[in-house]
Amino acid sequence: MLSVKQISKHFGDKIVLEDISLEIAEGEFVSLIGPSGSGKTTLFNLIGGLLMPDGGEIWKNEDNITNTTGHISYMPQHASLFPWRTILQNVLIGQELQGRKEEGLAKEMLQKAGLGEVIHSYPHELSGGMKQRASFIRALLSPQSFLCLDEPFSALDEFTRLDMQKWLLHIWEDNQQSILFITHSIDEALFLSDKIVVLSAGPAKVKRVFEVPFARPRDEQILLSEEFLKWKRMVLEEVQR
Amino acid sequence: MRQIFTKGWRPLAAILLFIVIWQVATRVFTIEEWLLPAPTDILSEAQHTWEEFLFHFVATVKLTIGGFIIGISVGLAVAILLHMLPRVRETFYPFLILSQNIPIIVLAPLLVIWFGFGSLPKLIIITLSCFFPIAVSALGGFQQTSRELVHYMKMMGATKRQLFWKLEFPHALPSIFSGLKISATYSVMAAVISEWLGAQEGIGVFMTLATSSFRTSRVFVAIIVVMVLSLTFFGLIVLLEKLVLKWNKKGGTV
């Protein structure tokens, strides 16, 4: 379990985060939604240990991980694959940093992710969607069990995005790692997550937490159901309020 | 191979045309051989002297390779040091540039006075002209590492050492190779210049002897060999670059 306890952070005169508390249970998928500039990325950098909070602490199970790195796995907005490494070498980098490589497992995961054909290709030979898949597999393969995803699909076109969301659900339902997911899209948050945390802007505070009621495994049919639209309206009202 | 031919015929034709004009001009205007020898004179001189010349040639090649290797090692070491220690970079970067403002032609005799006629002053001269392009291009490459990739590595908990060897160094390789290409050509020039000042062997010695006895054809033989040598070194680096940077789209089609 990862707990963010009453974190606050300011840069100069500007207070970015104020008294933010979150909990992500083992195997839980939590989305973080809020207007741009609401400090979501700052929160990620704090959880990743790159920044020291002004107040509050971050705990992973029984360890205080405030301002220490290497406890989470990360998937950035752009694929950020290394151009000189093949796809296989790329997805192994997270393990390399922590010391042990499981090439067999990596190959198996790439195969399942539909990237079996391109394990020895270089990133520039792949489409945007495939790069994001490789990037997600890289995050999954890293030994840390807790994943932070920073708007991973925002740079993709609408069709690829829906494909990727379904694909991510499919892969994730097999692995059940804890995920904290930043997104701009309410649809995406509702479709994917167990819990949605709505942030306010300047300074960011936790406005409200929604428990998403849809059963798993989820189907894209729910995107068009009455229930889904009702929830979407509720979340939207909360975001705009 | 065909690609080389289709792309290469233009410069090749230009060179041939140039040689023909040169040949014709020396004959038409009856220019003395000690002033400007015709290409055919140079060719026959080359046939004459190649046995004697080979000895000088080997000496220069050895000196060039030795100096080049020391030069790139020093260049890379300087770049890594300055990159890892920002304070040191701020303090010593101006010295790096100043080191290139010393005219080598003036420095060389001084080095001979300080270190004698051995190979040490010569290696210093080559190193001095080789390390700078490498150091500057490598440093530039390290500094321009994609911010996104650095952020990823830091979020994943990479140590400073991992960040350098897994990200910054491979990222800088294309820049380092452009530096290597410049240094490779500089190293031949620097080796010849270093031989001008007190050496027993080398193309530089051969040149000074030929110049002082007005055997201009010999000078031209030396000039052409130096040019070919530079080109060869350059070509070897390009070849190595293609092998190492297979992933780089611009580097090759492999």
Describe this structure in words.
The complex is a heterodimer of chains A (241) and B (254). Chain A contains 8 helices and 10 strands. With 241 residues, chain A is an alpha/beta fold. By secondary structure, chain B is mainly α. Chain B has helices spanning 2-28, 39-84, 86-98, 104-115, 120-143, 147-155, 160-196, 203-212, 216-244. In chain B, helix 8 packs antiparallel against helix 9 (216-244). Mean pLDDT of chain B is 89; it is low at 250-254. Chain A binds chain B through residues 44-45, 48-50, 69-74, 76, 78, 80, 82-85, 93-94, 96-98, 122, 124, 142, 148, and chain B through 146, 148-149, 151-158, 162, 166-167, 170-171, 173, 245, 247-249.
Key words describing this protein structure:
heterodimer, A: 241 residues, alpha/beta, 6-stranded mixed sheet, 4-stranded antiparallel sheet, 35% helix, 24% strand, B: 254 residues, mainly alpha, 9 helices, 81% helix
Show the helix and strand layout.
The complex is a heterodimer of chains A (241) and B (254).
Chain A: E1 2-11, E2 14-24, E3 29-33, H1 40-48, E4 55-60, E5 63-64, E6 73-75, H2 87-91, H3 93-98, H4 103-112, H5 128-141, E7 146-150, H6 158-175, E8 178-183, H7 186-192, E9 195-199, E10 206-211, H8 226-240
Parallel strand pairs in A: 3-8, 3-9, 6-7, 7-8
Antiparallel strand pairs in A: 1-2, 1-4, 4-5, 9-10
Helix pairs in contact in A: 5-6
Chain B: H1 2-28, H2 39-84, H3 86-98, H4 104-115, H5 120-143, H6 147-155, H7 160-196, H8 203-212, H9 216-244
Helix pairs in contact in B: 2-3, 2-5, 2-7, 2-8, 2-9, 4-5, 5-7, 7-8, 7-9, 8-9
